[in-house]
TrEMBL record:
This is Oxidoreductase. Pfam families: Aldo_ket_red (PF00248). Residues 55-310 form the NADP-dependent oxidoreductase domain. Gene3D superfamilies: NADP-dependent oxidoreductase domain (3.20.20.100). Coiled coil: none annotated. It comes from the Bacteria.
Amino acid sequence: MGQARHNAGMPHPASHLLMPGAPRLGLGLAALGRPGYLNVGHAADLPDTSLEAMNAHAWTMLDDAWAAGLRYFDAARSYGLAEEFLGSWLRERGHVARVGSKWGYTYVAGWRTDADVHEVKSHDRATLDRQWPQTLAALGRAPDAYLIHSATLETGVLEDASVLSRLAELAASGVRVGLSTSGPRQADTVRRALDVRVDGAAPFSVVQATWNVLEPSAGAALAEAHAAGWTVVVKEGVANGRLTGRGHVPPALAAAAYERDVTPDAVALAAVLAQPWADVVLSGATTPDQLAQNLAALRLTVDPAEFAALARTPDGYWQERAALPWT
């Protein structure tokens, strides 16, 4: 971690999903496309969760992100109506942007924040065949990147010949296919995916993974993916709000933010941007103020080694994340 001391705004040559001149921050819509999510304090960000209000709010956030220069937007089938909100916004505004989406989870909360289950995971061919045309219809176009949502070794998706064959077809059509990861074995999943071949060719070229100063365990594997020519997208850089003023911010991070006259989330994101393998880093902001605070990361220079002592065990980190309430 300590060798990277990088200006957050500098582009990386392997950032194939970034438009020329765009900053390396993108906007993730996980907390904008549905009324319930597990970010700390999420309920306070969305006082009106009617469909009309949520759509208008998402458009406000997308407008602010666009005005700030962001050109990469991340959605998924399970993010409620995120793809629909994003697709209609792009068509109405006439914007050209890079879009990533994901398949493998189905949203089942019925637009409620108090649902017992919010999304159901299924990595089979039937789900892929159902969700790909849904994504096309919602976005009004093919996504630039299409990822298995939270692939793990346990689901067997990286061994499923039928799924891999279909993903290889999409890759051959020009879509960048890959996977997102989660859980304490992210590194193992990434390394397995790097070895996947279909008819001798590697179908995957994108990975989206969690990396932050509390959970850096996937870093070496993500560096390997980057070295192999993959685009690396980082999610949860502020640990679902735990590295913001709403969480119990570690003193080292709070001190670094105070010294730089920014909020803790900006320093946390700058630490991600300082990684030489991180091509795109997602902001999960839910309000304009949060987005403005996140954007400050682009002007910071930090040494991630300052925060090495903050790392949790992967098992401990993911257990804590799993305990976060959906609000």
